[in-house]
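Ligand: S-adenosylmethionine. Inputs:
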Amino acid sequence: MINDLDLSNWKELDILTDDLWLFASRDKTGKHKNVYHGNFIPQIPYQLISRFTKAGEVVLDAFCGSGTTLYECEKLGRKFIGLDLNPQILDFVSSQMQKSKSDFYRLNSCDNTDENSRILN
Ligand SMILES: C[S@@+](CC[C@H](N)C(=O)[O-])C[C@H]1O[C@@H](n2cnc3c(N)ncnc32)[C@H](O)[C@@H]1O
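Predicted complex:
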């Protein structure tokens, strides 16, 4: 199995099975502030993380921006590595995580197109 979903009960799951995902509104709960240009709605990483990972596994977002994927990982009990070119937005994400008990995440400012860029400190 690639996830923790109980597929014997798939119709009751919080997983969209249509080919078109429709969300009535953006999830703005918790740490999701919708303050960063181009951030995606939290329900997208929620669906993908739930389908393709299990609790405790590591999710990498190489363009993590304002941390939408990280906050969903925290909610779902996944570890997280976030990379981004923009150190200011990573400072914002770090400040959001000050209120978190989770230490299951790493953030690093780097240019993903630069093969000499360090991945993690
Ligand atoms: C559309 S935003 C991602 C938004 C994120 N999914 C969210 O929900 O907040 C794209 C991000 O990619 C980063 N980025 C662009 N080019 C990059 C590169 N070469 N290396 C690392 N990050 C890069 C930008 O700084 C920006 O934060």
